[in-house]
Predict the structure of Glutamate dehydrogenase.
Amino acid sequence: MSYAQNVMEGLKQKYASEPVFLQAVQEVLMTLQPALDKDPKYQKYKILERIVEPERAISFRVEWVDDKGEIQVNRGYRVQYNSAIGPYKGGLRFHPSVNLGILKFLGFEQIFKNSLTGLAIGGGKGGADFDPKGKSEVEVMRFCQAFMNELFRHIGDTIDVPAGDIGVGGREVGYMFGQYKKLTKSYEGVLTGKNVLFGGSLARTEATGYGNVYFAQSMMESRGDSLEGKTCVVSGAGNVAIYCCEKLWQIGAKPVTVCDSRGMIYDADGIKVDVLKQVKEVERASLTRYAELVPGAKYTPVTDYPAGRNAVWSVPCEAAFPCATQNELNLEDAKVLLANGCKCVSEGANMPSTLDAVHAFLEAGICYGPAKAANAGGVATSQLEMAQNASMQAWDFETVDNKLRGIMKHIFTSASETAKEFGNAHNLVLGANIAGFRKVADAMIAQGVC
Ligand code: NDP
Ligand code: 2IT
């Protein structure tokens, strides 16, 4: 049994109740073996055994009072996974499904993603099993304040810098920032994704979606192709999906779908991004509202999807952008995409494709941009926000967007050069994992056992 397989087997025994965490680790470990064979120091220093364990996982009670005067209790978490190359950095997710296993998967991915950006940021993730759906604005504020009442002890602008993820956007970051300031008397860049009125960076809102499209462009160009004129399918209808659609239009491609957890929109003329923003950012409504506002658009509720599938992937397209959540695209979906002639899959969400779907894309030899490379534009721009806060500067939109483009190009080059080094030129899963891993592992070795 190889070193990587051996560590994986041990983890399966130990963390059997955390399937998505095991899935994320398996994807990484199974591609690292060539790098481990090339340099025995990683095994000698037991890097795999160390890197799979979070440095620290904090779990805490969050209690707050709802609009009816009832006391509510939630579970909050912050997983401080790896600080070898910088302060812990990663988003906060508020969703009823959140548990330690999900945050460990996200935090583990974040280590390699952050390393790939070439910036000095470690890996972390956090959140709570709070469901923002159906909550009033004041309830969301009270929850964010209650969450920060514990989290503030564990974070700081050089310690751990959270940001948004599912269910956490500019509004929630603002409430948490206000409470942090009150509790600590300190005005510092402790969270990213802030409003530009108090230290947020221009282009951070757009960064993950835009970065995903920049990454897909690099992949297509490397094959002598481009996204221009291509019909694209996008899943999700939140922050990442909206700005993915916006950038696709800007580069001459056409997004024709979006979806939320209740249903999907197919708009053959192309998704109207201004309407989507109105529905999701302003009204915070369901996509049925989009269909009301755009009469030609077709709404399909999830109850009409084929069992276990996301109907978005059945819409014929040349490029696909999964931007909703983990495991939203399975092997059957992958087969349909490939049969329909899809040439490019670029992941805006974290781990949206199941392991067998990933293998299907790699085997077919299409452009496949794994999440930790393709969606790294969000966290990279968060680091640009940290840099602006630390130097008390505010850069204009174009400056930040140009840096984002440069970083996405760097990530593509580093993943594809590493893939070539190991004789598998188009396998960006291998390339991204090994490139991200080596920097962190070498830093861990240099810092000793501590
Ligand atoms: P948002 O909360 O803004 O949006 C999430 C969207 O996905 C919503 O439209 C939501 O629908 C939909 N969704 C969630 N679960 C499902 C599901 N099971 N089926 C169909 N649709 C679903 O989150 P983000 O856009 O920020 O995040 C989306 C993904 O991108 C996540 O995987 C996140 O980890 C990843 N990501 C985010 C980054 C960021 O900067 N925000 C950076 C890098 C990655 P509904 O509202 O109905 O729940
Ligand atoms: O998954 C991610 O990279 C994010 N949710 C963004 C993290 C960040 O710190 O900006």
Summary: The mean pLDDT is 98. The CA atoms of residues 48 and 359 lie 23 Å apart. The longest strand covers residues 71-82. The first helix runs from residue 3 to 14.
